[in-house]
Amino acid sequence: MPQTYIDQFFYMDPGSAPPGGTSLTVQKVNFTDSDDDGFIGTATGDTFNGAQVMNVWVGDTITVIMGGSTVTITGVTLYVDDGAGGTYAVFTPTDGTVLQDATFQSSTWVNTSTQTPVSNFGPPCFTPGTLIRVPGGEVAVETLVPGDLVETLDHGAQPLRWVGRRTVEGRGDLAPVAIAAGTLDNLRDLRVSPQHRMLFTGWRAELCTGQAEVLVAAKHLVGQPGITRAPVDEVDYIHLLFDRHEIIFAENTPTESFYPGSEILAADRAMFNEVVRIFPEILRIRAEGAPVARRIGQRHEDRLIAS
């Protein structure tokens, strides 16, 4: 099933750069992983704003004046079919930079078109009413606040650093995934965002990935017994952020917390600024490269593991 994401872009080409001093305006645009393989590439029908992606240049950089400072941003440039026999270019960061309107200075570019992963796009999050394990019991996710202790699989009780909440249209690619009670040892029905990953263990995980424990995206479980899409007009998604990527327990089922390196923070300036105000260490964590709590399965692996 095609998966659509939103990200921040400048309409410009580092390999055919505009003159120094050119103004760059931030745009937020949808792009689609048409074959849902976890990558944006050139031979699988992937699209940007509905048009075919023709080239993917990973590792381009631009130097701009942004927010009063000169910064160099590393990212990926997409060449997109313009519908008239040519292409146009867009650039998006991959280093965690939150774009602001800027003034172009200079650029570098790569010479080989490859593909870029989308595994960091789209936030893992819970819906209100989900019970989260805490010391001494469980509480509804919407009652948690920064500083509250939550039980984790690897590090015991850990304090929440940030809790985010957003309301989105609950249809199409953003429709929640419903996991019926008992399907994944969950004691009650559980609803999560499509990108939210559940922890799978056992021989299937090891056979498919060489790891005994693997995080599997909820959207890749749809169609398995007890797991369906549950579209609604609107849905509230709640994010739980810790000092590191953690395995926590929702309705008794091990699942992931919000990933500190998530590109959703790069795509949402307001969210990023809110997190930085409360949790300034995230700047260092993102710069150093935030490790994931477990290996993240690819689409084909996820479906084999869950079968």
UniProtKB/TrEMBL annotation:
Among Gene3D superfamilies, the record links this protein to: Hedgehog/Intein (Hint) domain
Q: Give start and end of each Hedgehog/Intein (Hint) domain.
A: 124-261
Q: What is the lineage of its organism?
A: Bacteria, Pseudomonadati, Pseudomonadota, Alphaproteobacteria, Rhodobacterales
Q: Which domain of life is it from?
A: Bacteria
Q: What is this protein called?
A: Hint domain-containing protein
